[in-house]
């Protein structure tokens, strides 16, 4: 097998598991090997951030950042950059540019080969970005710059075919900024679900597959940051009702429904799934700092009253 065949198989494997599991993946999903020919190949190594499987000849297949357990250092950490910076900054392993892993990064830069970036959101939780490219290799700063390319034309390619057309730096910078925003939202969702013990704050539904982190103040508001105090854990039904102002939540956490919804009569789903919660209080996180901001709730509730 050659390196291109391994990369194409790795992209297909990631496509499959993200379709099955969603964008946020547990390490248990990522640690499963994929098959190329008759050999099993790994996507990444839990202990190392820069990874080249033994079957590959040059470059690397993946890089990884992790959220450590309390009290541990991040072995491979991103340099602090703004969300609107059009690249990720990724540190070398150690301080020697001639380290074997760092040479692999240099080869990926020189060859312009697409790789995978496994970005840690929480301990054991990652979001996979691919294809990404090493856009600079800098021994002075002991870091590389990583840019994201959109996946247009990346699927279905065969090892005998040429890799996707390289996008312009502007297109890659845009794709990278969009990827950073998705990462922020994914991290926000995990933090909100954790704060609410993975249950809808209205009905208590416990399945992550249909739980959302609903913003109290929207993204476009300069205060609408992806922070737990600006979030509510809601199932899809109650998230939809909240976003469309059919349901409001007072600053004291009491649920109110619009007059139009209360006057609707259409079976048990409406009766027990929505109307039955009118006048009840949402379930809030045990941690005071994770509870929804009363100022934000009041502002959002004012919008609900105006809409009603």
Order of helices and strands: HEHEEEEEHEEEHEEHEEHHH
Total count of helical runs of at least 4 residues? 8
What is the straight-line distance between the termini? 64 Å
Measured as a percent range, the helix fraction is 25-40%
Number of domains: 2
Largest sheet features: 7 strands, mixed
Query: Rg to the nearest angstrom?
Result: 23 Å
* Overall morphology: elongated
- Which range does the strand content fall in? 15-25%
Task: Describe this structure as you would to a colleague.
With 308 residues, the protein is of the alpha+beta class. It has 2 domains: 3-176, no CATH class; 196-307, no CATH class. It is built from 8 helices and 13 strands. The chain has helices at residues 3-21, 27-30, 100-111, 169-195, 236-243, 259-262, 268-273, 294-307; strands at 24-26, 34-36, 39-41, 50-51, 62-65, 88-91, 115-122, 125-138, 143-148, 211-215, 231-235, 247-249, 255-257. The strands form 4 sheets. Strands 1, 4, 5, 6, 7, 8 and 9 form a 7-stranded mixed beta sheet that branches. Strands 2-3 form a two-stranded antiparallel sheet. The protein is elongated.
